[in-house]
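Researcher: Quick test of sequence recovery. Tokens follow.
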């Protein structure tokens, strides 16, 4: 496979931290581990340069477009992808975001280069863009992060089920492990060691209210009837914070809710270990890496039963799935979890919970699945 060239297109890799960016970084690491003899051209739309502590094990050339003014960036990036594709004629193009498939489709029409794409979540649902729909139908393979996203794509776009496979999100287990509640956080927030703590980690953006933090706030008065000193910590920042503060005041929860704001990545594990249950009853989550991180810390997890959380929590085997619009069910389930009566004993066995999530969603499993898809859907066609 010497001299084989892949082009891989990503929205971000280094200058923004989010679920898609995390997925893309693991994807790049995995594919280079699988095929270290391939030359890679990596095109990144929004970054300006790479991270100094990021290294690759294969011949890799990065192409960054983040310095181009935003109004022009999409057009310039698309032209760059097509020009380089015609010039280099890679054996395969892989796009880290569905929106890039339109350029890949036109390249395929011009050059017959096959392309794969990745479907994460909300961007793959209810697609009404005709060029994007056409590009999806002509993709050689679609990697969906969850069976929920896969099923929606098949149903809504009438796609061939054989062209959509599942490559779930994964995480770094070494960064997340069970530990006692950190003393410095207990002191910072005036909490007692035995006090029940509910945690959500989410971007507090108006467009992401589907994460479900409103529902937890509205369920808190009912939870407090059974667990009076329960405390809710909401980690994240965004343009929805002022409205959230008003809702907290309206519900009279000022002494029972902490908006922790932005926290550095290196403190995230401490916050998971501070809580007694991680709760994010979302309804538009493509997968939810935060569920895996909390599980790796041995924490009980509550998610919604209408999105990719179903996959992350293995249909309820690893956590509780609730109707994200049913405040009564959310309150009742959180009370059960905090009182130790939820009927899933695995949720109260931190080390077993951690091992189970690593076995299911660890990097080794991710890499093995990707290797299988590459062999089955690509290299068998060129060998």
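Model:
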């Amino acid at each position: 496979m010497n001299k084989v060239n892949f082009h891989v297109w990503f929205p971000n890799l280094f200058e923004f931290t989010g679920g898609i960016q995390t997925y893309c970084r693991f994807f790049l690491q995995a594919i280079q581990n699988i095929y270290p003899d391939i030359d890679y051209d990596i095109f990144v739309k929004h970054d300006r340069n790479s991270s100094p502590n990021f290294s690759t094990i294969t011949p890799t050339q990065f192409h960054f477009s983040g310095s181009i003014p935003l109004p022009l960036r999409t057009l310039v990036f698309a032209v760059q992808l097509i020009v380089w594709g015609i010039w280099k004629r890679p054996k395969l193009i892989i796009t880290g975001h569905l929106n890039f498939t339109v350029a890949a489709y036109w390249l395929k029409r011009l050059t017959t280069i096959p392309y794969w794409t990745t479907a994460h979540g909300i961007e793959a649902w209810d697609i009404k863009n005709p060029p994007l729909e056409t590009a999806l139908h002509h993709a050689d393979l679609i990697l969906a992060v969850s069976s929920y996203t896969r099923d929606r794509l098949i149903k809504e776009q009438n796609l061939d089920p054989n062209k959509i496979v599942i490559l779930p999100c994964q995480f770094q287990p070494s960064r997340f492990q069970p530990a006692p509640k950190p003393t410095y956080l207990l002191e910072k927030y005036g909490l007692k060691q035995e006090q029940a703590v509910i945690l959500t980690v989410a971007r507090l953006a108006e467009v992401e209210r589907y994460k479900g933090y409103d529902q937890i706030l509205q369920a808190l008065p009912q939870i407090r009837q059974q667990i009076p000193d329960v405390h809710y910590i909401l980690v994240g920042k965004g343009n929805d914070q002022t409205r959230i503060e008003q809702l907290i005041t309206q519900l009279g929860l000022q002494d029972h809710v902490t908006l922790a704001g932005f926290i550095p990545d290196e403190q995230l594990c401490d916050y998971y270990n501070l809580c007694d249950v991680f709760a994010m009853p979302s309804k538009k989550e493509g997968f939810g890496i935060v569920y895996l991180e909390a599980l790796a810390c041995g924490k009980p997890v509550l998610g919604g039963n209408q999105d990719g959380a179903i996959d992350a929590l293995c249909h309820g085997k690893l956590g509780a799935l609730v109707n994200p619009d049913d405040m009564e069910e959310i309150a009742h389930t959180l009370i059960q979890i905090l009182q130790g009566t939820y009927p899933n004993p695995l949720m109260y066995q931190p080390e077993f919970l951690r091992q189970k999530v690593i076995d299911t969603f660890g990097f080794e499993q991710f890499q093995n699945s990707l290797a299988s898809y590459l062999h089955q859907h690509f290299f068998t066609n060129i060998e």
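The chain is about 40% helix and 15% strand.
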